[in-house]
Write the structure tokens for this entry.
Amino acid sequence: MASKTSDEVKKSVMELTRIYRPANPRKFVKEFVKKYKVHGGYENELTHLVEMELGKLK
């Protein structure tokens, strides 16, 4: 991912995490990647971001 695109995707995932507060971060990220057609193997990185954001919210 290009840095600009990467930042936009990360911000989007973090905002959606704050809104939806998913119970299963891995499933949430898989659905996000499929819906928004994020290319590459960034699921692990995005899952980690979702888990960190959920930790902040608790």
User: Anything to note?
Assistant: The chain has a mean pLDDT of 89.
